[in-house]
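Full entry
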Amino acid sequence: MSLLERVTTLLRANLNALVERAENPSTIIKQVIVDMENQLLQVKTQVAISIADQHMLEKKAQENAEKSAEWLRKAELAIDKGQDNLAKLEAAAEEAEVAYRASADKLSVARKKAGTALDKAVKAELAPLKLDRAEFITEIATDPASAGPEGQDRIEFWVRTNPGSKPGPMMKVASGGELSRFLLALKVVLADRGSAPTLIFDEIDTAVGGAVSDAIGARLARLGSKVQVFSVTHAPQVAARAANHFLVSKELSGSKRVITRMRALEPKQKREEIARMLAGAEVTEEARAAAEKLIAGAAR
């Protein structure tokens, strides 16, 4: 039953009740009719408002539906464009991967060729340094799965110190003295390719003497013509080849503390210290003459 029908039924019931009790039915009926018309007008007004609200809701829903459809259309276009861009990016990435692999392979080949040349050059320096039975190896392991900005190779310097022994990383296999001489040979070979501006060698001539010390001194002098070289040495053959000399000594101070001093040597003092290296505690004229000969030979 509609709202209008319910109101009409209610009013008729009230009307019947009033008629039964009223002394002047016509007057009451007229009043009831007026009231009914007023109530019907209110009902129609409410119905009209409800219909207008319904139309407004329908219009808004339509607008929302149109907006949703437009958004969906734009989203689909964006997805399609994104898929196109993704396809282009994937193609570009694949092309870059192919180009990288080609360049990395060429770099690996060039490195192995350079490594072979480096091994040969270093080997030529080893015999004078009393490492004639040793072997220097540029170990290049190629692993495409570990490729990066520097290529796909892992490079290490390996050595074999004795025939028949197993080669391994130079820093682990070589002893202290051997390591210094291997590094010296490597530095001499690579001197023309760039180096640190200053190189320091600490007692690189330990456990060697004579011709080996002289060979070490000659190579340090060659390095010194290209970069600054400091060498802590007890070998007169090495010291004789240096351009500048500093004497390092230790003294016991008054407070029983040991003080280390270093002073620059003049040419005459240089000869005296080299003579002391040759002779020991007592410097003889023969030692001084030998020192002069060493210095003169180094200058040639």
